[in-house]
Amino acid sequence: MEQVYRRSVESGVFQKVVVATDDERIYDTVKKFGGDVMLTRTDHPDGTSRVAEVVANEDADYVVNIQGDEPMLDPRMLKELAEGIASYENIDSATVCVPIKNKEDYNNPNIVKVVRALDGKALYFSRSLIPYEINSNNCPVWEHLGIYAFKKDFLLKMVTLAPTPLMIAESLEQLRILEHGYSMAVIPTKYPPLGPNVNTIEDLEKVRKILEQDVDFLNK
């Protein structure tokens, strides 16, 4: 959590960085390292709803939702995302993607794929391979990285939207945005995370080894 917080601050694009949690242990940990933290309600259905509670009374035009399990995120990616959503005249939300280079990952349901329109907006997200290449034309297969930016007004509206069939079928919250007719820009990043997000003990050990070997990254 501390690494995620410090990477976020280091990006230099945020007026304020706040850890949102309903766990007093996390609250105390953030306070101990000097971070800004808010203890939220315990009845949120997801992290996006929790973020909406935190920003409801904040003076902000845009909000970026960064998961606490991303200790290896690159601050420059956050800058790309923030600048990307601000560059659109009429967009509700934004996220980031990278090309999938390892074809073994094409059929991995834990690696979410996204297809983009010519203007960079999301057409669809799936755990299955999209697009399915019948005609070889070097069309990239994009991996979606789960960091989101929202217009604040849209975020407050989004969390009131009903769950949707595709969202439930794919277990992908962002599909609720598209199914209700709202827009999301998908911005290719030059700076993907330098290691895995932490979902398992094995992931945690991988991150620890990377940080031990990369002292400069750890001390940023």
Description:
- The chain is α/β, with parallel strands linked by helices and 220 residues long.
- Helix content is 34%, strand content 19%.
- It has helices at 2-10, 24-32, 47-55, 75-87, 152-158, 165-170, 175-179, 201-213, 215-218; strands at 19-21, 37-39, 62-65, 93-99, 113-116, 122-126, 142-151, 184-188.
- Strands 3, 4, 5, 6, 7 and 8 form a six-stranded mixed β-sheet that branches. A two-stranded parallel sheet has the order 1-2.
- The longest helix has 13 residues, at 75-87.
- The radius of gyration is 17 Å and the shape is globular.
Number of strands: 8
Number of helices: 9
Structural class: alpha/beta
Helix content: 25-40%
Low-confidence stretches: none
Outline, from the CA principal axes? globular
Query: What does the average pLDDT come to?
Result: 91
What fraction of the residues are assigned to beta strands by DSSP? Answer: 15-25%
**Termini Cα gap:** 14 Å
SSE pattern, N- to C-terminal: HEHEHEHEEEEHHHEHH
Our Rg estimate from Cα atoms comes to 17 Å
What composes the largest sheet?
6 strands, mixed
